[in-house]
Protein 1
Amino acid sequence: MSTRVGIIGYGNLGRGVECAIKQNPDMELVAVFTRRAPESVSILTQTATVCKIDDIENWKGKIDVMILCGGSATDLPEQTPVYAKMFNVVDSFDTHARIPEHFDNVDKASKEGENVALISAGWDPGMFSLNRMYASAILVDGADYTFWGKGVSQGHSDAIRRIEGVKDAKQYTVPVEAALEAVRSGRNPELTTRQKHTRECYVVLEEGADATKVENEIKTMPNYFADYDTTVHFISEEELKKNHSGIPHGGFVIRSGKTGWNSENNHIIEYSLKLDSNPEFTASVIVAYARAVARLSKEGQSGCKTVFDIAPAYLSTKDGAELRKTML
Amino acid sequence: MSTRVGIIGYGNLGRGVECAIKQNPDMELVAVFTRRAPESVSILTQTATVCKIDDIENWKGKIDVMILCGGSATDLPEQTPVYAKMFNVVDSFDTHARIPEHFDNVDKASKEGENVALISAGWDPGMFSLNRMYASAILVDGADYTFWGKGVSQGHSDAIRRIEGVKDAKQYTVPVEAALEAVRSGRNPELTTRQKHTRECYVVLEEGADATKVENEIKTMPNYFADYDTTVHFISEEELKKNHSGIPHGGFVIRSGKTGWNSENNHIIEYSLKLDSNPEFTASVIVAYARAVARLSKEGQSGCKTVFDIAPAYLSTKDGAELRKTML
């Protein structure tokens, strides 16, 4: 029997999860839950239902894993503990600083409901975290580096859009090639914020807006841009739609470390992602972990987990013997 | 209390394990077991003993994890099942085709002895296997590529040394940059053996040997060289010692896959290693998994495991809360 999955929240991530489920024949999307009027939400999967989020309790026992696709700022801190009492859940909570608190809340709720919860699935947190952890456990004497991009930062794009005179905008975070090369050389450089990433902005102005003023406001914006070398390109609305409507992203996790009786040998471990669609890749990671969560729950486990707690084999449709034969 | 480790076999890998243990304060090397006369083996760790392999049974209960550093061709298939009856063990068995059989033998023995055994730790099999598995579980619709090098192949170097007229030799396996780029482009190319790797040989001739004949014998050697573009450099013994005495290696695991309702988006996951010392890096992976094995044994588990079966957190000295706070 396939694993019955529900989705809460049907934005880019929810749609990504829907697409990922289609690629995994052992998974089945049964329902999408929304705060909107269900009849106004049109999904791609003909065999699934769109439901009001208020009706979710009626689905207890009919869904094996619920995937929460809301935002980390306000949705998930509230939703994940609530739904972890009713269902096995997976979320992609990505506010790194608040993970310990979120974990504790979800752990309590999921134990109460005797469910398994997995938080912070995706690529950072997620696959990048895993790679930081594996690499640092192997190369004990070393340094970690994470670079992001080239990719669209939603938060930075939003910050530009809030500036007066800006009609629309897209911001790309770009890793600095020279910094990457310095890290790969094994020299363990100390890198400033400015040395690691640049920021490229594509901006559509409102009619009559002052380009110089907007550019200056972007480049001097604290936290978002002031500490970076920032480039601003003014383009037409058509150009933005044509060339910048995708949501690509990616990045690099590099560990540089030494071994040998006198630390005489250098090693570089590098993990990188080049993603056409940030939400679809995140969704693909989530769905693999949903498989693991369903299995752990069947084994009688409960409580909150992260990617660190899941043995890799749980993610695969192949059994142990097949994995050893084909992948080891 | 630290984890007490024993090493069986004191070659390059055994010495690498000794160095890795020095870097991990929670681990302690207590004894090295050898087939040679113990007084003829001089190790680096002053607090550890060198013992005859025949005395190993006296160490039951005094060693938490035994690390087997013999070869995969003849040593490990015999040794790992024998010692898994007495101790928790880790090996780096790397004959991919014989892993299922080795697993079954070790599983039986370790269950009989109520010990935990982990086989095939290292980087391939090992970290490369893990990355193949994670990436294929995430990008279900895709293709896997593994490239090795640039690095020294012991087997190919040995094959050259067996040719008449050859005094010494070192062979490097080199991935073809154009093939790597084709894979990274997301085009999922079908690559022949010749298109993926080239082979570079550095050869020292015996006095009076026929260079042309040796070069021809190398280049036409079936399995080892005939299917590759092979370059042969004749150099002096001094040059070989000076420039080719290291044991570097590395490689790339790349998964290229598609997501989206109509498979419209491409993604590339790439994991790469650049290693100054193949045995020391392998040893570092082994020691991290020895930590996991000691913990699983304390939890009361037994039987044979592979890297697929171990939750990542078991490899780290940090506890769950610390991992979530610092690495997620």
Protein 2
Amino acid sequence: MSIAPWRSHLASALKKNRNQPHSRYFQLATVRSDGTAANRTVVFRGFLEDTDKLKIITDARSEKITEINNQSWGEICWYFTNTREQFRIVGKITIIDANHHESELQKARESTWQELSDNARIQFVWAHPGKPRANPEAFSPPQPDANKPLDNFCLLLFEPVKVDHLRLRGEPQNRTFYMRDEAGVWDVSEVNP
Amino acid sequence: MSIAPWRSHLASALKKNRNQPHSRYFQLATVRSDGTAANRTVVFRGFLEDTDKLKIITDARSEKITEINNQSWGEICWYFTNTREQFRIVGKITIIDANHHESELQKARESTWQELSDNARIQFVWAHPGKPRANPEAFSPPQPDANKPLDNFCLLLFEPVKVDHLRLRGEPQNRTFYMRDEAGVWDVSEVNP
Ligand SMILES: Cc1cc2nc3c(=O)[nH]c(=O)nc-3n(C[C@H](O)[C@H](O)[C@H](O)COP(=O)(O)O)c2cc1C
Ligand SMILES: Cc1cc2nc3c(=O)[nH]c(=O)nc-3n(C[C@H](O)[C@H](O)[C@H](O)COP(=O)(O)O)c2cc1C
């Protein structure tokens, strides 16, 4: 597979903003079953090996899982504060949960779990997110097995089909659309900001 | 009107993060006519006087206008990097464009225009956003009248009905839901992060 043409720009933004831990966070928008928008911050966990698919981790008990099962298209909005540039990424989301049948993706889910910090892993043992606040004990469970992902641990794969790259620092500003056609070829065009 | 209970927390976050210009930016998610999510960064322009409605400005030619006309509910995701807290705000968006009939809101649109910098105002004279890149001349038009908003200048009013306030810095973390009932009364509840 050839790497998408927007990847080098994203890599450069990640590099130039790496002194900011928040440069690895972006906002993921999905659609609720009532047809309204949902939006939350998540952590970028790198690309799935040899693909342009972004990795995100989440809890099977979180609302976004129901939303993605209902409408698998989402949009990422990723603003880099040092370089003042934004990537908006439209894509299709695949949920790799404990029951996912493809063994290659199950392996990716496992290795993502293994690479997490203890602090990130333990959150998957916490009480049900969004339910009335549980007792403090519910938040100090024993550490889960660092090798085997818990059942509620999900890997999300976000596969981009459109990228809108806006750079505020231009004169005036610069904005580039990247659009992937059915054959997987990316079309690049300069547009008005 | 009494001020909503989440307002003091937001005011405190704005204060503690004010050394970061990006603390006044948030991501606004809407829904496209094909039922998929859209997401972009916009600037917080304060609250409409004596209300809990957030002000946002935009161009009538931008995609979000079509989207909001189709589905007026959106979600704001606002992450504050210094204090590591997130406000997710569900609300209904009203577009105050040049043809809006309520004179009070037309006044708010006018004063918002007047308070903009020259730099922000001139963008409304630029070539059509998202269309193939125009010649450089299209981006150096004469300054528009600072008193009278251009026809394509829109004020968006975002009226919150639900706020999800997540603070990563707690032990473990803290998360509070604020929900407005039909009578306009806010219910507050502590939930699991
Ligand atoms: C800085 C930051 C990073 C976060 N990273 C993630 C993440 O990687 N995955 C995740 O599911 N939630 C993450 N969250 C929590 C989400 O914003 C959200 O509260 C949670 O996923 C529940 O959302 P949902 O019920 O709409 O699915 C993060 C929150 C913040 C503030
Ligand atoms: C830091 C930053 C601030 C922005 N502020 C606004 C804003 O206040 N209003 C706006 O319409 N667009 C703003 N934009 C541009 C939007 O992100 C987006 O590119 C534009 O509104 C077109 O989106 P749409 O076609 O989906 O409506 C901002 C972009 C950045 C990176």
